[in-house]
Amino acid sequence: MRLIPGSLSRTLSTRWVFYVVSMLAANGIGALFVLTFIRYGLPVSPGPGLIVRDPVSELVLAIYLGFASVAIIGSAIVMLRFAIRWYVRGGPPTRREQIMAVRGPLIQSFVYLALWLIGGTLFVILIGREMPELMSTTAVTAALAGVVTFGFTYLLGERIMRPVAARALSDGNVDPRIAPSVRLRMAIGLVSGTLVPAIGITLLSFTQLSTHAYAPRSFAWSVLLVAIAMILAALVTTVLLAGQVSTPLRQLTRAVTEAQRGDDAQVEVYDGSEVGLLQVGFNQMMADSAERRVLRQLFGQHVGEDVARQALQFGTELGGETRFVAVLFVDMVGSTAVVSTKRPADVVAMLNQFFNIVIGVVKRHGGFVNKFVGDEALAIFGAPLYRADAPTAALSAARELRAELEAMPEISVGIGVSSGTVVAGNIGSEERFEYTVIGDPVNEAARLTELAKSRPGSILASSYTVYFAGEEEQEYWELGELVALRGRTKLTQLAWPRPPGQDGDSSGHDDQQEPNESGIDAEMR
């Protein structure tokens, strides 16, 4: 058996002592009010001295008051026993332990009501032995005071034991049937704080109007005493009821504000009624939101932000659409030799640095890194998000990528750029699919990359791509020969970046604007 944690033990013992003292005080104040009202508040006073003068009656009354105090403490011990057993055992509470933690104050308030019923009956009998004329008045006063005490002790007890209920509801499942509803609590507050005192005033007034048995001055003092009790009861019950509604609303308001700032907000669950369901619902909503945020982040990291955003906005389904795109393919030269001479951890670090540069450059130019295959990367411009300047962006990204990779002198790469019409969409099955592009430009970019590995500058593009690029980007490229790329029957006219410092208006500039017709014709065919 493990010991109760110090903080929990202190909270439990402090709350329990405060609860017992409060319940004894509340019932004592109720009994004192009954005695005071009968002795001084009735329009027809029983006269000076004690109300109960017989020694036997006094002894019986004292014994019962002691018994009631023991019953109040004993019922609290029962609730404490369940809480201690749960805390010592650890883990979520059983349903019975959860009920005692949440519904305990209401159950004990019914115990107090039963004690008032028994005590009131006994008190009426004792009064009747000496002053029969006060029996009916005493019975009504005791009954009304018992109802007020019942409502007050429940609302106060629920507030005092809230931390224990919060722990029970947080560690277990919230069942709205184990706690009084908000409507029932409001009804208890209305009855005990307003309706019952109002009934007392009404009975006094009805008796005065029907019998004229009370002197006006005595009647006024009686009504004033009951009115004061009514004001105090209404004030206390209103404060307790308002706290049951306003406190969770304030917590939810703060939590919503924190959530709007992007924080992971949670509220304490301390109620099993509709309020508790609202608290649990908010916490579950925030947990689901955090999970979706993580999944969205992971989804975006795996498939790309643009693909993730499009999937979240429009959903995912198999199939694709025809798009005009530009394709950038980059491959590391001699990676097999590099892997054989380095430790695996160093190889992974090098590849991560390499791909980090690739991703950064492609992202800055509005592209989408579609996939990594070993030491190769395929980037798409124009899908999934359409852009009219896809060739311009791809060519500019290729030049910048070559410059960025100079920071890694230990590797060399080949970069190929192509453009054309492809089918872009989700390929695979319902259980597993990925967003990709399929078409001749992808194959052409891969073949250009192979060829670029053995060419100065390590970058090759198709003249078709340069032709559809913007005029400013065309200034950086010059056209070359027609070649037959591996696995392709169509001829491809090559293009590569113009050497730095070369005048863009020198001979061959016209070719930049209007590529070799035979090359274009071959590409179009």
From TrEMBL:
GO terms for molecular function: adenylate cyclase activity. It is found in: Cell membrane. The keyword Transcription regulation does not apply. InterPro entries: A/G_cyclase, Adenylyl/Guanylyl_Cyclase_3/4, HAMP_dom, Nucleotide_cyclase. It comes from the Bacteria. Residues 243-294 form the HAMP domain. GO terms for cellular component: plasma membrane. Residues 326-449 form the Guanylate cyclase domain. The keyword Transmembrane helix applies. GO terms for biological process: cAMP biosynthetic process; intracellular signal transduction. Its EC number is 4.6.1.1. Residues 493-525 are annotated as: Disordered. Keywords: Cell membrane, Lyase, Membrane, Transmembrane, Transmembrane helix. The chain crosses the membrane at residues 16-42, 62-88, 109-128, 134-157, 187-207, 219-242. It is a multi-pass membrane protein. Belongs to the adenylyl cyclase class-3 family. This is Adenylate cyclase. It comes from Hoyosella altamirensis. The lineage of its organism: Bacteria, Bacillati, Actinomycetota, Actinomycetes, Mycobacteriales.
